[in-house]
Amino acid sequence: MILRRITKHVKDQNWFAVALDFFIVVAGILIAFQITNWSEARSDAVREQKIIERLHSDFEALGREVDERIEFMEPLVGLIEDTKQLIINDPTDADLERLKNFYETAFTLPNISGQSDTYEQLISSGDMNLLANDQLLSELVRHASFTDQLLHQDQVIREWARPYIASIVRLRSLLDALPMDEAITEAGSKADFIVAIGMYESLFVGQLAVQKAHRESFFKVIEILEQEQSP
Fold it and tell me: How many domains does the chain have?
């Protein structure tokens, strides 16, 4: 239709009408282009909000896990110290129930929380560009790098410490099979236990500090995600 009109106006040499027709065509194309861009931008904004909601859910859950670990660990620092003093004073006269309590609770180094599943999906799919907030992007990358560092560090420390706390590990396996004094004698010397539990105490306290630092990292991301969510 518009092409026939332009052709007729050209034949009639009605240049004003030709110019008007061209203007209508160009304007229509521009409007259609803007509508398409607006629709894509709106679609991206909806996707961004869904991603932010999923990230917030992930980080809230992971942050709660870290909180629970810290709440579990903090009271146990004293138990480890009590156990160390108990062994230093007279390991053959140690309270079996207190030692079992140590093994059931304090002789555990909680793991480090891993990455958000949603974050890893964004990286693998290349959809990180959907997040418009540069501060959020920066904090997500920083947190992911920090988490990777902690996970690697945790693995290295556990491997390094294993031979140093071997006597504590042996004692745990012997307590149910032998009387207390025989189990301690069989597991190692008093000096071995003092070194081992002192080493473990340092690891435990260090791990607690790491968990607290990781929690702060989670909270920074959560704070930005909460600001980004639609009211």
Answer: 1
Q: How confident is the model at residue 212 (pLDDT cuts 50, 70, 90)?
A: very high
Question: Is residue 26, in this structure, part of any structural domain at all?
Answer: no
In the numeric block, the tokens 């070194």 are attached to 195
Give the residue ranges of DSSP H helices in 74-95.
76-89
Dihedral sign for Cα atoms in the order 86, 90, 91, 95? negative
Task: State the Cα–Cα distance between residues 85 and 156, nearest whole angstrom.
Answer: 28
- Extract the tokens encoding 101: 């309590």
Distance CA 190, CA 196 (A): 10
Kindly report, residue by residue over 27-51, the tens digit of the pLDDT. Answer: 556 665 665 555 555 555 678 888 8
Is 10 among the domain residues?
Answer: no
Q: Give the C-alpha separation, 171 to 165, whole Å.
A: 10
Predicted model pTM: 0.75
Domain of 102 in residue numbering reads as 55-228
Contact 84, 192 (CB under 8 A): no
Question: In the predicted model, what is the mean pLDDT of the chain?
Answer: 80
Whether residue 111 has pLDDT greater than 60: yes
* Separation CA 160–CA 188 (nearest Å): 20
209 HSE (CA, 13 A, CB side)? 6
Tell me how far CA of residue 209 lies from CA of 8, 129, 199, 213, in angstroms: 82, 34, 16, 6
Residue 107, pLDDT > 90, answer: no
Give CA–CA dist 152/164, Å, rounded: 20
